[in-house]
Amino acid sequence: MIRIALLLFAALLPVAANAQTPFMENYLHPKDDADRILAKTYLEGLRDGVMASNEMMKVKRYCMPEGVLLSDELADAAIRGWAKKQTPGPSLDNFPVAVALIDGLKETFPCKK
């Protein structure tokens, strides 16, 4: 659990100047090209951190099929797919993108029990 918290903290450090990006409202609805670029850059780092975290865990949060790599496009689809299942509003707007990605990956690529 501490590893996850540290990885999420490290993922958020690069965007300290624009603290809005780590939240769903700004990720799903960027205001301009600069916000779109920042969101893409944020996603790249977040994806790498989530993959590293999952690999270090004894009990995996999600299980990618053999030969499938977690691309930016796949990570984005997991976030957006997760968001579509949620109730729109302030609680979703202020929800961390990192948690949405992890939950989206858990739903998309569940581990066999």
Account of the 3D structure:
There is one protein chain. The chain has 113 residues and is mainly α. The protein has one domain (2-108). Helices cover 61% and strands 0% of the residues. It is built from six helices and no strands. The chain has helices spanning 2-12, 24-28, 33-56, 72-84, 90-93, 97-108. The model is unreliable at 15-19 (pLDDT under 50).
Give the tags.
113 residues; 61% helix; 0% strand; globular
Uncertain runs? 15-19
SS class:
mainly alpha
Biggest sheet details: none
Basic shape: globular
Helices and strands, in N-to-C order?
HHHHHH
Number of strands: 0
Helix content: 55-70%
Report the mean per-residue pLDDT as an integer.
85
Into which percentage range does the β-strand content fall? under 5%
Distance between the termini: 20 Å
What is the count of helical runs? 6
Tally of discrete structural domains: 1
CA gyration radius, whole angstroms: 14 Å
Task: Give a brief description.
The protein is mainly alpha-helical and 113 residues long. About 4% of the residues have low confidence.
